Amino acid sequence: MSVKDTDLLDVRNIVPRDRHPLIFKTFDSLQQGESLVLMNDHDPRPLLYQFQMERPGRFEWSPLEQGPEIWRIEIAKRAEAQNDKRTIADYLEWDHDRLDGIFAAFLNLVRSSETRASAEAFHPFRLGLLRHIRMEEELLFPTFEEKTGMGDGGPTYVMRLEHDQIKGTLAAITGLLDGETQADPVLRQAEQLTSVLTDHNNKEEQILYPWTDQALGETSRDELVRKMQAI
Ligand SMILES: [Fe+2]
Ligand SMILES: [Fe+2]
């Protein structure tokens, strides 16, 4: 779901003790699949932990902007899960789809030469993809390597190399957008990013995520998802 379809909940002028009750009330009034965007003047991490305690398995937490003055977090209501416990596959595949959606909206803006709007739309994509890469490199890959004994030369080795390639293309697009360049060079880089990312995500979804889910028990994989949400 794009940010435009969501409710913006700016709590900066709400007295602190009323903030969390208001946020939970707004979240509870959402339909499944809908989301709200929380805007605040500090990192709302304690709220994430409260969501994990009080609405386990019921929400997605996606930072769109992280300071230094404004924090914006998209909080989505998941379809009713049969189990409060999350799996790596459901969590990270959802995030792949979310990022694909933001990237498609960004490309539409580039194609219609909306220079400023496309630069603004690129920011949450870049932030979200770099966060996704950190979740994998800092938490998922070490767990996979430990459980399977596959390190150098294994699947995570290849995934890390591809992450470096992805980060290089992200930096190139950022540079082009800063220079207020024409659409064509941006679209060429974007095409390259799409081709690397599509293949990369498929490999993760077919091998890495299901293998790690299988290697971990129900509780450990839910724990890992909670840690990834906090990155
Ligand atoms: Fe990855
Ligand atoms: Fe991924």
Summarize the structure.
The protein has 7 helices and 4 strands; from the N terminus they run βαβαββααααα.
- The number of E-state strands comes to 4
CATH topology of the largest domain: Four Helix Bundle (Hemerythrin (Met), subunit A)
Number of helices: 7
The CATH class of the largest domain is identified as Mainly Alpha
The CATH superfamily of the largest domain turns out to be nmb1532 protein domain like
Order of helices and strands: EHEHEEHHHHH
- The radius of gyration computed from the alpha-carbon positions, rounded to a whole number of angstroms, is 18 Å
Mean pLDDT over all positions:
92
* Contiguous uncertain segments of 5+ residues: none
Portion of residues within helices: 55-70%
Q: How many domain regions?
A: 2
What spatial form do the alpha-carbon principal axes imply?
flat
Strand content: 5-15%
Structural class: alpha+beta
The distinct ligands, each listed once, are: fe (ii) ion
Distance between the termini: 21 Å
Q: Characterize the biggest β-sheet.
A: 4 strands, mixed
Q: What is the level-2 CATH architecture name of the largest domain?
A: Up-down Bundle
- Please give the order of strands in the largest beta sheet: 1-2-4-3
